[in-house]
Each structure stands twice: as structure tokens, then as C-alpha cells.
Amino acid sequence: MARLCLIAAGQGADADPAAVDETVLGELLGAGVQIPGSPFEGMEVAEARALLDGDSGPELMLDAMLRLGPYGLSLAELREHPHGIDLGPLEPRLKEVLGTESGLVRLAPAELGGEIGRLNERLAAPAPPMVLIGRRQLRSNNSWLHNIPSLTGGSNRCTLHIHPDDVARLGLDTHARIVSATGDLVVPVEPVDRIMPGVVSLPHGWGHAGSAQRTASLHPGVNANALTDDSVTDALSGNAVFNGAPVTVAPAPAPAGTDETAAPQRVPLPVVTA
After folding, report:
1. What is the mean pLDDT of residues 91-108?
2. Higher pLDDT, 85 or 211
3. How many helical (H) and strand (E) elements, i.e. helices and strands, does the chain have?
4. Rounded Cα gap, residues 114 and 35, in angstroms
5. What letter does residue 91 receive in the DSSP assignment?
6. Long-range contacts for 146-150 (Cβ within 8 Å, ≥24 apart)?
7. What is the largest CA-CA distance in the chain?
8. What one-character-per-residue DSSP string does 4-18 give?
9. What is the helix (H) or strand (E) element at residue 252, kind and residue range?
10. Residues 234-258: tens digit of each pLDDT
11. Above 60 in pLDDT, residue 263?
12. Are residues 16 and 70 in the same domain?
């Protein structure tokens, strides 16, 4: 990681990674020599650096942080006690770190309390026919692995998770059309009993139609963002709302010229021998 940082900084692949460690140590000790009561208080950074013990940059950083910590330990002391050091019973610190004007934990800050009325209005409103949520995929990692042949297929497919009861109620077959206030998509149906009735789920990171990535473009999937409205934001954080979008779901024929329900063939990785 240090070498990559140096390459990104324009110093080339031959730069010494230890330079990054020394930079981090310098910043750490630069702050440490100014902390009242610190074991390095009033020292020059080079003087404090000379006191550290360790065979690598990470060990030196660990030693510095232990020395600057509340117990004044060192890496050498930890090595002398491989089974641990008893630092005594835990001590309460809540009053020390709690920054509210009242000195109490605010279980209902005014900002949240003001939202209760709006929440009650939302709960009292008629429920939408269906709501759409996103999902992550273990073998997908956003869109990063969609162009790797050995990772296509299996659970790494763009399908609509929907409860079997909803499949029967809506008369769905292999594909469904999902319509929201901002767009509509046709996607393969995958009934799963792990999802709540009335809720459907699309994975994010798909929509590779027209991509220059050969494997990804063969199994493009659909872009779930087409169904979300980026003008609808959370009142407190300002984040766009990407979950719980109202949608309707209806049967749809498979898109012409595609077989999205079939699992893609895997291409085996080359065997490397010593």
C-alpha cells in the first residue's frame, strides 16, 4: 500500500515504501511532542523518533501510539508480556466525554423529535403496491467483478428477488416489468422466500449494455438507479433515497434476443504450476 501511495504521488515504483512510514511517524510524533503530559512533550521530533522500538514502520507506529496512550505502555513491554497486561478494572468515562449542554444522553434530539409527525403521516398513508430495495452480492462487489468470466453465473446475476406469494398473486413467469415514478425496467424473476411479501429487490452495480467490457456486456443486467428519484432526499441527512421506492410489478415477456434467465457459462481460470 505504501508503494502504491508513492507511485500515485509520482515517485515511481522504485521509491522506498519506508518513506511513507516515516511521514506518518513524523506527523504522529509532531502532534505528540505538543501534548501536555505526553512522554514526548517538549522534545524535538527526531529525538522522540530515536526512542521508538520496532523492526518495521507499522511496529514503530504501534510503539508510538502505545507510548502516547493513556497507560504509557510500549511495544517492548507488550513483548515482555505475551499473555497480556492487566490494566485494572474498567473506569467510567461517560461524564468526561459527553458533550451535551445538559450532561445527559439525548435519546430524542430535537432534530429527530421534529420528524415524528412526518413519520406518523407516512405510516397513516395508503401503502404503495410494492416497494423496491437494493441489495449487495457476495461475488459481485458492486460492479467490479462483472467482467471476470470465472465469477459470472451462480448468485452473481441481476435478478428481481420477490416472494413466491407475490409471484403467484401477480401471475409472474420468467420476467417482470417494474415501473416507478422515474422509469421502468424488465428483469428476470427469482422467487425467494427470504424477502418480505410486498417488497422486491434489485442488486446495484448492473446495467452494462453497450459496455466495452466483453464479459460484462454479455450479461448486462439493468441499472436499478433508473427506478429511483434523486430529487427525493432524506430530510435530516440530505442523502438521496435509494430504498423503499414505490413501484408496480407486472408480467413481461423476456427481452428479444436475450436469455437472461440462463446461468452464463463459466470460463475456467488457467492452471499455474510451479
Report:
1. 87
2. 85
3. 10, 6
4. 41
5. -
6. 146/205, 146/206, 146/208, 146/213, 146/215, 146/216, 146/219, 147/213, 147/214, 147/215, 147/216, 148/215, 149/215, 149/266, 149/267, 150/266, 150/267, 150/268, 150/269
7. 76
8. HHHHHTTS-TTS-TH
9. strand 245-252
10. 888 888 888 889 999 999 998 876 5
11. no
12. yes
Helical axes 57-68 vs 18-32, angle rounded to 10°: 10
Q: What share of the chain is helix, strand, coil (3-state, %, to 5)?
A: 30, 15, 55
**Contact predicate 209/143, CB 8 Å:** no
Residues 217/221/227/228 CA torsion (nearest 10 deg): -70
CB 243 within 8 A of CB 198: no
User: How far, in Å, CA of 7 to CA of 5, rounded?
Assistant: 5
- Look at the chain and report how many structural domains it folds into: 2
* 264 secondary structure, DSSP code: P
Closest CA to 24 of 41, 37, 54, 12: 54
Radius of gyration of the chain (CA): 28
**In this structure, are strands 184-191 and 160-162 parallel, antiparallel, or unpaired?**
parallel
Note whether residue 100 is domain-resident.
no
Tell me which H or E stretch contains 94.
helix 94-97
Asked whether residue 265 is assigned to any structural domain, the reply reads no
Q: Which residue has the cell 403521516?
A: 121
Could you tell me which residues come within 8 angstroms of residue 20 by beta carbon, excluding any fewer than 6 positions away? 2, 5, 6, 57
The answer to which of 7-16, 30-39, 231-240, 260-269 has the lowest mean pLDDT is 260-269
Q: Which amino acid, one-letter code, is at 8?
A: A
What's the mean per-residue pLDDT of the chain?
87
In a domain, residue 91? The reply is: no
Query: Could you give the C-alpha distances from 242 to 112, 131, 132, 226, 234, in angstroms and in order?
Result: 20, 11, 9, 11, 10
Q: Whole-angstrom Cα distance, residue 75 to residue 61? A: 10
Q: Is residue 36 part of a domain?
A: yes
